[in-house]
Amino acid sequence: MVAETNELLRRACKNTVAVPGFNIPYLPMLEPIVRALRDTDAFGLIMVARLEWMKFEAQSLEAVAEEYQRVKDERCTRLHLDHVPVIDEDGLPVDYLSIMRQAIDAGYQSVMIDGSRLPLAGNIAATRQVVELAHAAGIAVEGELGAVLGHEDGSVPSYEEIFASGKGFTDPAEAQQFVRQTEVDWLSVAVGSIHGSISKALKDKKKVEARLNIPHLRRISEVVKIPLVLHGGTGIDRRYISDAVRLGCVKINIGTALRQPFEQMRGDSVVKAQQLVYDTAISLLRDELNIIGSARVLKA
């Protein structure tokens, strides 16, 4: 399956087709997202990150895998383990290899290791460990280089300051070294996007309207030659997304755009919240990403 999953991302690069990765912080969100992908014949990844079972209500990676198996449509979906950090957003070390083994046993078809809070050498070493483990089991691996901010509780510079300074942006030369030495399949890069906040004070707030440094992304794309990933995909003008996809940044992670509508409606009715997730996902697939029918393109 790894060869097929990885091949799907490579076909996306070749055909300049975006592949959304939808995060699942609440289990009832999973079914309407799969339904939206099926009803639009679009291809996307269903994902859960460690923080979504630690700080939200995804319960566990196994719970998400079980719900995925119940409602999946493999014409349009695959199951991906998102952010498993080496050092988490609270600055604590994580037993990441055990989590990777759990994911492999649970049937995940690709995984992400995030060593971006480590120095380059440490990030390479940790990512290489996961690549060796996952590839032996036939699982594709996503790594991360650079700092995609947003999950931290403490104060950070303003978005405009971050963007203007390039603070935390992925260095192209380091990216080339990282890919060569880890043999990672996909690379998450920092070029201007930010994560939606998970802090109690900010998680309900409208997300900053981020933009992308396309010339910087082009420099990375020219040297790594593998599919690239954009974390924090909610709220970015679709012109930037289109430019990014043309440069091989095809996996677009989407969390806040669906999480916030679900949270706002679930107090009234979980069924109504699920319908809102479905309607929002349809709009994203049709109007923002323009990938109706992409499942047929990528399977061709």
Question: What does it look like?
Answer:
With 300 residues, the chain is of the alpha/beta class. It has one domain: Alpha-Beta Barrel (TIM Barrel). The chain contains 13 helices and eight strands. Strands 1-2-3-4-5-6-7-8 form an eight-stranded parallel β-barrel, surrounded by eight helices. Strand 1, helix 2 and strand 2 form a beta-alpha-beta unit. Helix 2 runs parallel beside helix 4, helix 2 packs parallel to helix 12 and helix 8 runs parallel beside helix 9. The two termini are 17 Å apart. The mean pLDDT is 92.
Structural class: alpha/beta
Chain oligomer state: single chain
* Overall domain count: 1
By CATH's scheme, which homologous superfamily applies? Aldolase class I
Q: Approximately how much beta-strand content do the residues carry?
A: 5-15%
Uncertain runs are: none
Q: Summarize the helix and strand pattern as letters.
A: HEHEHHEHEHEHHEHEHEHHH
**Gap between N and C termini:** 17 Å
Major beta sheet, strand line-up: 1-2-3-4-5-6-7-8
Number of helices: 13
Q: Averaging pLDDT over every residue, what do you get?
A: 92
What is the CATH topology assignment? TIM Barrel
Rg over C-alpha atoms, rounded to the nearest angstrom: 17 Å
- The beta-strand count equals 8
